[in-house]
């Protein structure tokens, strides 16, 4: 560990000098691209491209971890398959990158590969989703949202505005930190007795639509849908309209994310409440990786700040980053 840490500290000093030199160049005659060995090599395993949230998060990561910002980024999309993420993580170990970052598609099944990352003495930064592992001190830091609070916030709106609702809960990817914690938070507020049924839409619009088509047959008394993300809520709108009912009126819809299409649905009266889960935190990830590489102390977790929307104007919607 000491060998690598010494190498890293030395490289960090060199990187800092190189970046200072680069910025000096850029202030005058245009910046020269840093040569590969002056950049922080980062292996990033993104879980997929399943939703508008994930797309916005990927765009933010790639806009922040650029060569001109001092990074050599290898970015791999796992198409929502854990085995693809494990393969990518092992490839990053083989490449001996300086830092590994990943957003785990589900919470469990990572012990072996996290041990391999620790044995390779490569610092691990957890992004967005959480892990449930027996490995001691598995990662340097985690940056993401408070999923349980998001579920509580959604539940509090329902309790206040639709206390007698017959709720169908549209769950995200089963076993993902976002699904587990949002469900725990929401159910703890509204009470299980008010939830007529649950099914997963795997955080995608198509699977959300299919789950709601089945739910409207199985639970015709449903008059409120809590969707763990906007994309599944947008699929629910399609299913509700296909059933000849009015989304937002006959069947209320409460969602989490706050992506553009979700807030457009709120503006159109088809969603009733949207809890934001901000995906635009690539700059915070970049800052954390630089500190990890330099051997600086970091908090074990950094919570990305959220808000919630009962309404929005077209002007406010058009002004948003995502
Ligand atoms: C939340 C993120 C979730 C989003 C979904 O931080 O992990 O995954 O809510 C996405 O849209 O699929």
Automatic annotation (TrEMBL):
Keywords: Signal. Transmembrane segments: none annotated. Residues 43-296 form the Periplasmic binding protein domain. Belongs to the bacterial solute-binding protein 2 family. It comes from the Bacteria. It comes from Antribacter soli. This is ABC transporter substrate-binding protein. One of its GO terms (molecular function) is carbohydrate binding. InterPro entries: Peripla_BP_I (IPR028082), SBP_2_dom (IPR025997).
């Amino acid at each position: 560990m000491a060998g690598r840490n010494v190498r890293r500290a030395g490289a960090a000093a060199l990187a800092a000098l190189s970046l200072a030199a680069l910025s000096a160049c850029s202030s005058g005659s245009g910046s020269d691209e840093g040569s590969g060995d002056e950049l922080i090599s980062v292996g990033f395993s993104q879980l997929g491209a399943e939703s508008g949230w994930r797309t916005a998060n990927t765009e933010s990561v790639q806009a922040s971890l650029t060569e001109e910002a001092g990074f050599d980024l290898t970015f791999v999309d796992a198409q929502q398959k854990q085995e693809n993420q494990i393969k990518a993580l092992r490839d990053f170990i083989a490449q001996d990158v300086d830092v590994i970052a990943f957003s785990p598609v589900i919470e469990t099944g990572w012990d072996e590969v996290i041990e391999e990352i620790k044995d390779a003495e490569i610092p691990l930064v957890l992004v967005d989703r959480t892990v449930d592992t027996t490995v001691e001190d598995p990662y340097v830091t985690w940056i993401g949202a408070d999923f349980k609070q998001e579920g509580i916030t959604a539940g509090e709106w329902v309790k206040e505005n639709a206390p007698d609702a017959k709720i169908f809960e549209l769950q995200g990817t089963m076993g993902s930190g976002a699904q587990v914690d949002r469900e725990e938070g929401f159910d703890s507020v509204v009470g299980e007795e008010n939830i007529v049924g649950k099914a997963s839409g795997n955080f995608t619009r198509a699977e959300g639509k299919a789950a709601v088509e089945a739910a409207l047959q199985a639970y015709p008394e449903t008059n409120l849908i809590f969707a763990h993300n906007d994309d599944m809520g947008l699929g629910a709108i399609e299913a509700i309209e296909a059933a000849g009912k009015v989304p937002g009126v006959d069947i209320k819809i409460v969602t989490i994310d706050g992506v553009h299409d979700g807030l457009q649905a709120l503006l159109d009266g088809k969603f009733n409440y949207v809890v934001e889960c901000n995906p635009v935190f690539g700059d915070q990830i970049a800052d954390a990786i630089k500190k990890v590489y330099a051997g600086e102390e970091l908090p074990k977790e950094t919570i990305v700040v959220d808000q919630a929307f009962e309404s929005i104007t077209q002007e406010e919607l058009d002004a948003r980053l995502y």
